[in-house]
Design brief:
With 114 residues, this protein is mostly helical. It has helices at residues 5-13, 24-39, 64-72, 84-87, 107-113, and strands spanning 80-82, 101-103. It has 2 domains: 1-76, no CATH class; 78-114, no CATH class. Helix content is 39%, strand content 5%. Strands 1-2 form a two-stranded antiparallel ribbon. Helix 2 runs parallel beside helix 3 (64-72). It is globular.
């Protein structure tokens, strides 16, 4: 999304931090930049699976966002967003109008995972 000029400018103004997952050193530097943003008091949304799957299934989580939270001393608030595959399928340039559901996962199930 940082390749779309107008959107990229808006995201950078909002202090969003791009992560180049193809270059490990660049990704680590992005996490350091994200820590600086967190330290300035800005809240951040992180998608720990790193990218969307083509099937809509949740992918395995990457370690970086969790290290970033630990090193920054910030809390992680898990959330879910459902229905995004119908809005913007992976690989498509355009998006569709649709309703998404979101919320917080049940804490009893979250404890099982942790």
């Amino acid at each position: 999304m940082f390749r779309i000029p107008v959107l990229a400018t808006a995201m950078r103004l909002g202090q969003l931090v791009p992560v180049d997952r193809t270059d490990r050193d660049s990704a680590i530097n992005s996490l350091k930049k994200a820590q600086e943003v967190l330290a300035s008091g800005v809240n951040m949304t992180v998608f720990p699976e790193g990218t969307r799957s083509t099937t809509g299934e949740l992918l395995p989580f990457k370690k970086g966002p969790f290290y970033m939270a630990l090193e920054s001393g910030v809390s992680i608030v898990p959330m879910t967003i459902l229905g995004t595959k119908a809005i913007w399928p992976k690989g498509e340039v355009r998006y569709y109008s649709w309703n998404c559901d979101g919320g917080f996962p049940r804490t009893d199930r979250f404890q099982e995972v942790c």
